[in-house]
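Exercise 7.
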Amino acid sequence: MLFLNKIIDAAKAFSVQRSQYTERIPLSGVVTAGATQTFKANVSNLGHFLCLFITGHYETLVSVTVDQVAKIIDDGICHLRMQMEDGGTGQRLLFSDYAPLDLFLQPGRIRSANATNNLLDIATFALKADPAPQLFSQTEHNYLFTANSDIICRMKNDSNADIAFDLLFYGVRRKSAAQTVGVKVM
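Solution. The predicted structure, written as tokens, is:
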């Protein structure tokens, strides 16, 4: 691949490199049992954000009564659904309806420390979920968010237990022209 070094225009490459960088915008929260809640991640005023990938994980908890004792167990079922919206001018819906998180998030389901049956309670063996998958693959999601806008996620929880989630939007931040004035290439 030594021929590529003759094709690359260093001046153009450095110009692009000074004007943008990779960035990750996290969003996490706990959705109350049986509720629909809105969560926001701010894009900030540093510049426009081109989202390239989404990744994340979520819990799969439910409250059950076993021998007249209430327990939170991990049933392995995705109880969370999400609708995503661009919070900039126009408030554009990015998902036309609520999509279950297990359809597009990797690594997806995680074991929760909140569950009382983390492979210990033999009496509720039939209610235990299989181990969470450990595969990791980002989901491609190309969308340009304007500077100083929000990434809005509406989450629905159909479980009778509170469920936590974490999302990560990975992409490229396009800096404003004012931030790159006076930057010199070495």
